């Protein structure tokens, strides 16, 4: 067992633990924090079912963003859908036998990698070229785009420039899952790709990537507009309600 | 008085300005003196060690509010909100872009409460709290009218109003309050309304209105005060008692209730619908000011509570009253509690209970300004969007010609009048005039294309703000009017 294999094995265990633990912790904090008043953004749904539909449209079609700015929507939606396809495509490295639908989408996953890069490039161009967006961008906003672009680029490099031993790689990850470690191919493109992915997993719970779980907890989007019909109470407002 | 600033020019179509850093850094409202701070439970002046107090308070607020917790974490700086704020569009100051305004608070939150901000402050734009930061807070959190337009366009629903309310609450807690809002809240606590109008003066004013209406219509329309056993308690902004064009609205409510045969009363104990505690984000004051209304309703033994034309008051009433001063189990369950005067009037119109003569408003071509707190902080009727439909239906029933302004400037996308959220004060006049630009742009278009000469609104702040700023954009100040002013003109009393 090479030192490299041990290093990457430990790195991925740590990254997976930080990602899962960190996001679970944040979700718990969001869930536990009370929302004392009703603040849905109208026109808000008057039923729970309506709220579910609203959130579904927000996270699948980015409805508010579409109304807001067609360019950000185009690049942002393209990036996220492509990312989803790419992630789905990667399932084949973690499953044996490979699920039918995962096998089916393999060619699309490849196009998606380019679409992902195009989306990132568009978003990055806005950050540099639009003076308002340039003003609000911190170094971390650029670095996040750089990280994602580098992950996509190093992935594509393995497909088109320097192939890696994909069978050995799959054995490595299946080994990680089964706690039966297998050697990792020592190809530079692969090592870079994997290190960057691990970095992304690690920064997820302490960065703006928290928008992914956060959107579901946003009171302005997930509250039902029924303030007159139901007496809402949570946190300090629950104390008022109890005191009556 | 000559203005020390230039009124923005109206182009042929709206323009998103290029960033001009520091363009409004000089804009600051007067600071509240100790005498206005103490009655609200705030320190009189900036406390020693305020930095620590402010950071602690921020932490507490975030723990008490899921909204703050989520909103401070989830922004990805996508830029969707950057061209949505009327103050940015009118001033070009980048700190008036919603995300940049949020970042004034978020940068401090990150520094003290997040892993990334504690260890990599430069990387994520986290800042220590300093006097400079506090000055920025005071300036720019008083350049937000808490209208929530940005949140409609945010993919995560991040509501800058919540953040600016929290920031003002923190500033109050360290002794840096805004004179305008805090002085007014003090008056509500001690006298019962924003204007400081005592009970006897109010009775006097109402008597005068009864005489005026008798003279104009020959009808005995009453303006009752503190009448036990009335069916309806009317809670309305105190501006309705004498300011123009607000008072026409009050006359309209009185005529509607008179025509429908509904007994009603005002209360000298709760002679104010407004609750400026919302603007300063302080829930103790919010609850205390709202509580007067429950007390008045119980004391007078009314069956319904109806709220007059006031934007933020309706948000507080519709969205918060049930929580803060409910349950309303002592009221008639056949009616929503509380009910907006527009809901009452609309219901009567639909049932054919009012006779309206549109020709009384034949000289008017009317458009409607959706007030932000009604549009984005509440609802009317029983279906989403009722707050947009109902006032328009009332207007259509009262006038011959009604046109809407451009769709992206009304409804849930409405532009603030520029004076909401505790900014309706002359020490912020430049901000108010510039912030009115997007609304004036949309108005100009319907004036030119359709000859609109009447801008109807259902908010006391909007009415006062437009009275002040319309002349800056070359419109007559009396172009603004109450929706119930139109009803008042059109209503015909049937002889029984």
Number of helices of chain B: 22
- Distance from N terminus to C terminus of chain B (CA atoms, Å) equals 53 Å
Give the oligomeric state of the chains in this entry, treating copies of one chain as homo and distinct chains as hetero: heterodimer
Spatial order of the strands forming the largest sheet of chain B? 2-1-3-4
Level of helix content of chain B?
Answer: 40-55%
Order of helices and strands of chain A: HHHHHHHHHHHHH
CATH C-level name of chain A = Mainly Alpha
Number of strands of chain B: 10
Annotated CATH architecture of chain A:
Up-down Bundle
- Shape of chain B, please? globular
- Indicate the proportion of strand residues of chain B: 5-15%
- Kindly give the count of domains of chain B: 2
* Low-confidence parts of chain B: none
Q: Structural class of the helices, strands and pairings of chain B?
A: mainly alpha
Mean pLDDT figure of chain B: 96
Give the name of the CATH superfamily of chain A. Transmembrane di-heme cytochromes, Chain C
Structural class of chain A: mainly alpha
Number of helices of chain A: 13
Radius of gyration of chain A: 22 Å
Alpha carbon gyration radius of chain B: 23 Å
Distance between the termini of chain A: 68 Å
List the SSEs and their pairings.
The complex is a heterodimer of chains A (244) and B (496).
Chain A: H1 3-32, H2 48-61, H3 63-68, H4 70-90, H5 100-104, H6 106-129, H7 131-136, H8 139-160, H9 166-178, H10 188-203, H11 211-217, H12 219-222, H13 236-243
Helix pairs in contact in A: 1-10, 4-6, 6-8, 8-10
Chain B: H1 34-37, H2 50-64, H3 66-74, H4 86-91, H5 98-113, H6 115-119, H7 121-124, H8 131-140, H9 149-153, H10 160-173, H11 179-190, H12 199-217, E1 232-235, H13 246-260, E2 264-265, H14 283-300, E3 304-307, H15 311-325, E4 339-340, H16 341-350, E5 355-356, E6 365-368, H17 372-377, H18 386-398, E7 401-402, H19 429-435, H20 437-450, E8 454-457, H21 460-469, E9 480-482, H22 483-490, E10 491-492
Parallel strand pairs in B: 1-2, 1-3, 3-4, 6-7, 6-8, 8-9
Antiparallel strand pairs in B: 5-10
Helix pairs in contact in B: 2-3, 2-10, 5-10, 13-22, 14-15, 16-18, 18-22
